[in-house]
Amino acid sequence: MLRFYTAGESHGQALLAFISGLPAQLPIDVKYINHELRRRQLGYGRGGRQKIEKDTAEIFAGVRHGKTIGAPIALRIENRDWANWEKILPVEAAEDDPSARKLVAPRPGHADLAGSQKFNYHDARYILERASARETAARVAAGAFAKLLLREFGTEIASHTIQVGHVRLEKPATWKKIQAVSAELDSPLRCIDAAVQEKMKAEVDAVLKAGDTVGGIFEIVAHKVPVGLGSHAQWDDKLDGRLAQALMSVQAVKAVEIGGGVAGAGSFGSEVQDEIFYEKSVRRFRRSTNRAGGLEGGITNGEDVVLRGYLKPISTLRQSLHTADMVTKEPVKAAYERSDWCVVPAGAVAGEAMVALVLADAFLQKFGGDSLAEMRRNFDNYARQIDEF
Questions:
Q1: d(Cα 23, Cα 333) in Å, to the nearest integer?
Q2: Among 289, 251, 299, which residue's Cα sits nearest to residue 109?
Q3: According to DSSP H, which parts of the chain are helical?
Q4: pLDDT at residue 36, rounded to an integer
Q5: CB half-sphere exposure, 261, CA atoms < 13 A
Q6: Whole domain around residue 324: which residue ranges?
Q7: pLDDT for res 212
Q8: Cα 388 to chain center, whole Å?
């Protein structure tokens, strides 16, 4: 079983990630991990924090001579902004810094109020520090390890933006185009259509001018996923359910779609189901379409796994909304914290990481193995079984 968890606050000393369950002798490319972290930081509509941070992963355990050793992996991502927050968020007991304003005006849509009530704070600082999407940097680093494992078996993951605000990409995207734009660091919003992307940029410019924020939709594609990951047997074995939960856990994601799920709900069965044929040249059962998004009955069917994350506009607005003071209970304007105004491409990278972690765990459950060589033998034997079916 692949397990991971993260620790750290948005303005604390660092973010940490811990990963266990990867097989021994998996080659680890630190430059690739840092490339993934860079992808998360980029995108049109990002705020000033990204100019401060230069996210890189320091691996402290579990990797030696460039390969995993079968032990838990620990890594650290420094928060450079900590130098500006050390007096406000000290680790040791200390007198309150009079210059540090308490956050008592919770932001609508944020975890501020619900978290403060749950943990009995009249200062949302302690809640927002962990609820912040800054935490996804640690997830992206962990997800890079999962992607490196999946690559060993031919599975690749990429994403692109299909909607920002009211502007939507209306044409389908091929895997090659998605893969290309996903890897392009200079692409402002990672949309495959340059003309649509310019309209998306205009939408982002408009909300910045208005002191507002904008959400959107990103699509994640896992390419060359083998048949048979996940199971129909129990509710929590269903891979579509696990993937949906993983994507939904990304900050600001409020809905998840698999394949053509949304359109399918308003269609007839004859318009939705993917008809099956046998392709003799490659000895494979195939689908004529992929409206199921590569998953049937909670099991991968050999087609690309396709998921969409629906990202709400982030909760911190320069033009603050109405709220109530947690101490005085009086009506006030919501607090403003330095923030982005569009995070759709960054959300997609975090989503890729979560999809990779779930798929890597499914690979490990299916093919097992304490070393990469043992896992590959199991995978190859299974591939022969599928070929002979």
A1: 51
A2: 251
A3: 30-41, 49-52, 112-119, 125-131, 136-151, 175-183, 194-210, 239-248, 261-264, 269-272, 344-367, 372-388
A4: 97
A5: 18
A6: 3-388
A7: 93
A8: 36
> At a CB cut-off of 8 Å and minimum separation 6, what does 345 contact?
42, 43, 44, 161, 189, 190, 218
Whole-angstrom distance, CA of residue 261 vs CA of residue 350: 22
Over residues 207-219, the pLDDT tens digits come to 999 999 999 999 9
pLDDT of residue 86: 84
How far apart (Å, rounded) are the C-alpha atoms in residues 28 and 132?
28
**Which CATH number belongs to the domain containing residue 291 in this structure?**
3.60.150.10
Q: Are 276 and 324 in contact (CB under 8 A)?
A: no
Q: What would you report as the CA-atom Rg of the chain, rounded to the nearest whole angstrom?
A: 22
Q: Residue 134 CB: number of other CB atoms within 10 A?
A: 23
The residue ranges of the chain whose pLDDT is under 50 are none
Instruction: Supply 124's token pair.
Output: 């949302």
What is the total count of domains within the chain? 1
Cα–Cα dist 64/5, whole Å? 21
pLDDT tens string 151-189: 999 999 999 999 999 999 999 999 999 999 999 999 999
Q: Summarize pLDDT for 317-353 with one digit per residue, the tens.
A: 888 899 999 999 999 999 887 788 899 999 999 999 9
